[in-house]
Amino acid sequence: MPKRVLQGTVVSDKNEKTVVVKVERRFTHPVMKKTVRMTKNYKAHDENNACKVGDIVMIQESRPISKDKNWVVISDAQA
């Protein structure tokens, strides 16, 4: 099964080798038929501490790295 890849914006880079990425998804509400925006934060592993706040990055699902870190930064769209 292929690993999921998501695109989001870095909202925090204060942790060592970890960034918090905000991913937004849009969908049509099944009853109201209105477009709804939902956001979720993911902790992602950033080996070289290369990402800064505001960067748009791609993250990929991976094995558990820590208690709540299951994603890895695979590319930086800004660089």
From TrEMBL:
Entry keywords, A to Z: Ribonucleoprotein, Ribosomal protein, RNA-binding, rRNA-binding
One Pfam short name: Ribosomal_S17
Keyword Zinc among UniProt keywords: no
CDD domains per the UniProt record, alphabetical: Ribosomal_uS17
InterPro entries: NA-bd_OB-fold (IPR012340), Ribosomal_uS17 (IPR000266), Ribosomal_uS17_bact/chlr (IPR019984), Ribosomal_uS17_CS (IPR019979)
MF-aspect GO terms: rRNA binding; structural constituent of ribosome
Keyword Aminoacyl-tRNA synthetase: no
GO terms under cellular component: cytosolic small ribosomal subunit
Highest taxon above the source species: Bacteria
GO biological process: translation
Subunit structure: Part of the 30S ribosomal subunit.
Annotated family: Belongs to the universal ribosomal protein uS17 family.
Function in brief: One of the primary rRNA binding proteins, it binds specifically to the 5'-end of 16S ribosomal RNA.
PANTHER family in the cross-refs: 40S RIBOSOMAL PROTEIN S11 FAMILY MEMBER, SMALL RIBOSOMAL SUBUNIT PROTEIN US17M
The protein, known as: Small ribosomal subunit protein uS17
Organism in which the protein naturally occurs: Limoniibacter endophyticus
Lineage: Bacteria, Pseudomonadati, Pseudomonadota, Alphaproteobacteria, Hyphomicrobiales
